[in-house]
Design a protein that fits this description.
mainly alpha
Length: 62
């Protein structure tokens, strides 16, 4: 599942870093905090590895 925005990609990267123990979980805020709790390392890696150049900064509301 690729990321839908650059913001989602960055949040997934932060959550992945915390899940791996590279950063403190207490440093997470907002979406990255929820992602770390609810998603597996594999799912976070897929979101974080999405090429961000073609993504919008934020997801457009539907």
């Amino acid at each position: 599942m690729p990321a839908k925005s650059q913001a989602q990609q960055k949040a997934a990267g932060a959550a992945l870093s915390a899940k791996r123990g590279d950063t403190k979980k207490s440093a997470l805020k907002g979406a990255s905090k929820n992602m770390e709790k609810s998603m597996s390392e594999k799912e976070l890696k897929e979101l974080a590895e999405t090429d961000g150049k073609q993504l919008p900064k934020k997801k457009e509301s539907e």
